[in-house]
TrEMBL record:
Protein name per UniProt: 2-C-methyl-D-erythritol 4-phosphate cytidylyltransferase
Phylogenetic classification of the source organism: Bacteria, Bacillati, Actinomycetota, Actinomycetes, Pseudonocardiales
PROSITE patterns: ISPD
Organism encoding this protein: Actinomycetospora termitidis
Site features described as Positions MEP for the nucleophilic attack, chain residue numbers: R147, K201
Family per record: Belongs to the IspD/TarI cytidylyltransferase family. IspD subfamily.
UniProt keyword terms in alphabetical order: Isoprene biosynthesis, Nucleotidyltransferase, Transferase
Length: 218
């Protein structure tokens, strides 16, 4: 019983290009993975955190974070599955990207509450601010996508533990970019709760600069 969180942190961070795994890159002096784990624990609704690290950086991540650290896999789905295998008897499991390390506690609480209210899969999401167009491979506009009803999905995503296990067991070669996508693939319903702009994913150098500015402003 309880709430476990799996923190995928096993990516290499190619787009950030820091020369080390992105989760070990510091935001204002604290590694992203440490900030992500501390944020989950600070919410007061998470009992156990399992960090999934690049296999060659398990010790280093164990040194900087409060979570239990296990080796990850060749892509995000594989890494989450390896973390999920380490979850004990928790009945709620969160999956939270190390790269979304400034996510506020309110989002963690809202996701857990919605799972506790009976939803098998819950994602935080925020309205898309930009006008969205679909283009062909040459960059020519194919159509304008109606922004009404479009939301950008964040993490932590929350699941009934059995639902998430079934979704990963059925994933096979399916490479969804998030865990809710795997639940949808087995016919499960996914609901949203309000996300938060501070839960943005640090992908590029610009994102890192914005994260540093956000920490300085808080
Ligand atoms: N991730 C993971 N295992 C992988 C790949 C990604 O645990 N094999 C994690 C990352 O560490 C990150 C999250 O999934 O916390 C989201 O992935 P992304 O932002 O794409 O991070 P990276 O894969 O590290 O970055 P890039 O794609 O630029 O290399
Ligand atoms: Mg990646």
């Amino acid at each position: 019983m309880g709430v476990a969180a799996v923190v995928p942190a096993a990516g290499s961070g190619l787009r950030l290009g820091a020369g080390k795994p992105k989760a070990l890159v510091e935001v204002a002096g604290v590694a992203m993975v440490a900030r992500a784990v501390d944020g989950l624990l600070a919410s007061g609704v998470v009992d156990e955190v399992i960090v999934v690290a690049p296999p060659e950086h398990v010790e280093e991540m164990a040194f900087v974070t409060a979570g239990r650290v296990v080796p990850g896999g060749h892509d995000r789905v594989a890494s989450v599955a390896l973390g999920l295998a380490e979850v004990g008897d928790a009945d709620v499991v969160l999956v939270h990207d190390a790269a979304r390390c400034l996510c506020p506690s309110s989002v963690v609480e809202a996701v857990v509450s919605a799972v506790r209210a009976g939803h098998g899969a819950v994602v935080p999401a925020i309205p898309v601010a930009d006008t969205v167009r679909r283009v062909d491979p040459d960059g020519h506009v194919v159509d304008l996508v109606d922004r009404t009803g479009l939301l950008a999905v964040q993490t932590p995503q929350g699941f009934d533990a059995d639902v998430l296990r079934r979704a990963h067991a059925a994933a096979g070669d399916l490479r969804a970019t998030d865990d809710a996508g795997l639940v949808e693939a087995i016919g499960g319903e996914v609901v949203t709760v309000p996300g938060d702009p501070r839960a943005f994913k640090i992908t590029s150098e610009l994102d890192l600069a914005m994260a540093e500015a956000l920490v300085a402003a808080l």
